Amino acid sequence: MTTMIRKKYDKQFKLEAIKMVTEQGLTQTEVGRRLGVDPSSIAYWIRVHKTDGIDAFPGNGRLKPEDDELRRLRHENKQLKLECEFLKKTATWFAKQQG
């Protein structure tokens, strides 16, 4: 059984490939042939760049700013729910002690 090795390309490489298509007018197939990259990868990079702009291709292990904020807000929401549950239980306990 053969194992495919997945190549990783850095942000600069992807941006240069995008420029070759958008600014130099080369086709995705031609750029792919020149760079040794599948044309569908170049098409994907172009779509991502159009969608995310300067936040495209943040790198390995890094999140886009909105994804980082979403992660932080989810964590904060979880903490607040735990605190709320604790306060409810504490209030119930004190109510039982009074009565």
Structural domains: how many: 1
Low-confidence stretches: none
Strand portion: under 5%
* Terminal residue distance: 72 Å
State the total count of DSSP E strands. 0
Helix tally equals: 4
Helix content: 55-70%
Shape: elongated
Please outline the major beta sheet: none
Report the structural category.
mainly alpha
Radius of gyration: 25 Å
Q: Roughly what is the average pLDDT, rounded to an integer? A: 89
Structure, explained:
The chain is mostly helical and 99 residues long. The protein has one domain (11-98). The chain is 69% helix and 0% strand. The chain has four helices and no strands. The chain has helices at residues 11-22, 28-35, 39-52, 65-98. Helix 1 crosses helix 3 and helix 2 packs across helix 3. The radius of gyration is 25 Å and the shape is elongated. The protein starts with 10 loop residues before the first helix and ends with a helix.
Which key features would you list for this structure?
69% helix; 99 residues; single chain; mainly alpha
Q: Would you spell out the secondary-structure blueprint of this structure?
A:
Blueprint: H1 11-22, H2 28-35, H3 39-52, H4 65-98
Task: Describe, in short, the structure shown.
This protein is an all-alpha fold. Helix content is about 70%, strand content about 0%.
